[in-house]
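Reviewer 2 asked us to include a model.

Predict the structure of this chain.
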Amino acid sequence: MSDVSYRKATMEDFPGILSLIRNSFDGVLREHGFFDSSPFASPKLPAIPQQGFPWFDMALREDSDGFWVAEVGGKMAGITLSWVRGSLWYLAHLFVSPAHQGLNIGQNLMERAMKHHKGHAITNRALVTFAYNPVSISLYARHGIYPREPLYWMEGPSQQVKTEASSTKLRDEKVEDFEKARGILNRVDELTLGYPREKNHEFLFRTPTARCCLFSTGNEPVGYAYVWQSGRVGPLATVSHETFQEVLRSAFRLAAAEGAANVGIAATGSNEQLMQVALEQRMRILDTYLFMSSKPFPNFSNYVLYPTGAML
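Predicted model (structure tokens):
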């Protein structure tokens, strides 16, 4: 049996980590027939750079205890990355290269990730995985993280997005100063998820391809949405179910205005309001995932996940 070693990730690992993630992702997509339709297959993604990995930089800075590499014979064989915000633990990545399956690497990486905390007792754990990968789903369930929501990646042509103005008094404002938005973002996150996620928002505010929009009626903030130059929407959250659809429609209009060919969203299957709006925009399902957590979140029907599933 091959000897497997485990160590903390370093900055020098970043190109190899991204390459392993993409190769592993592609392998699952091919095996289950989603390679041609999924927008996350590697031919549809930018080339892997040799430097400039802000997502991994943040992980190394904020969550190094959850950032692990497995090696076999000096070659990278698997990686895991979890992040912790207060008492919330989230598994962003756990991948084993196709050439190194069957060595119990996934289980051993998961055990290391599960120990990651920052002084607070962990009260909830969550992740997104392929809906058609029973091995991974079973691994997570054995660690007390259970299937909660079918998650569908949906896209539609930007030109088909309905652009008529809202009949409500909903206003949107692009916000570039995180400090200006911090209090509102924390309040909305506490209401929808039960946890503030300041570091995640700080990261998104520093991402040049995303912009944060705050929504309000009168002087009362009612939600936020991140809109991407790629046409993707998310994360998005509202303080109440009554405003969710109007905020989502407005976010789609803003996303379509970015100029990308398509708009896209990670749609939770039980959220009827979300599915109704996505379908009225003539969006269609391109790939299927599964949202898993140890416990339900308080108002998940008022929430839309980060587009790739690497962040709640």
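The helical segments are 14-31, 54-62, 105-114, 134-142, 178-192, 198-205, 244-256, 272-280. The chain has two domains: 4-122, 155-304. We have added this to the supplementary material.
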